[in-house]
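Archive transcription. Copying these from loose printouts into the bound notebook so they stop getting lost. Printout 1 of 2:
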Amino acid sequence: MRAVIQRVSEARVSVAGEVLGEIGPGLVVLVCAMAGDTDDAARALAAKVAKLRIFRDDDDRMNRSVRDAGGAALVVSQFTLAADTSRGNRPGFSAAAPPEEGERLYELFAGALADQGVAVARGRFGADMAVALVNDGPVTIWMEM
């Protein structure tokens, strides 16, 4: 599983003008299931994201997790994280999990993150989504399990 995590002051995801998910302070997690990913990888990534200490403490150091900070997560499927740009100018996406498996692992990841005590809002798998966010910091981190 691959993810790009952004610390945000607010974020929302919409499809055709309808807001599907919206959060205040927290994380936007763009997540991609890769071919061969397992349920354990989805759960491990969720646990890592929940514990990632990228929120400021009282000394203004990044020392608190999203749970510690009382934040939420907006989880958005993002198959383009599987892009292979090693040849030519058109990215290839064959490393992404097939759509059915990708959706299942996306839902598993979002549920596992909620099980970690993080309030979770979601986008819609496979939809053409508009994601609006205010990156706080900016803090943007790439992860892979």
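Printout 2 of 2:
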Amino acid sequence: MRVGIGIDVHQFDETKPLWLGCILWPDQVGLDGHSDADVIAHAICDALLSAAHLGDLGSNFGVDKPEYKDASGELFLMETFELITDAGFRVENVAVQLIGNQPKISQRRSEMEAIISKHLGDAIINISGTTSDSLGFTGRGEGLAAIATCLLMTL
């Protein structure tokens, strides 16, 4: 059994679409990043890679790898899943906490959880949201942060 934790943070960018939890959020301000800046997918990948002792998002898919420019969080999840499966692990569950004022995730939570679960071998996925009560960059509405925790089991 292995436990991992991951975090990702991106600032808003009004010129980009918002991809969050592997789904497009129309009419929402996007996030700035080398890839699609999907903080939920990125935090999950970091947690999975950490638990499997396979580095982190940057060492596997970093800005020094041009093939990942504008890559989707969905692609990162699929490739991370392949890496951890090849290392002899399966994903038992993942819990994610999104921190920010917008968007409100309750109406699309199950959609995000289903897509992510599909990419992680039908693992149990739980996504929740919170604000930071007007504190820090997320509280000022400058961006989003996500923290993910996962449990891996050996195959």
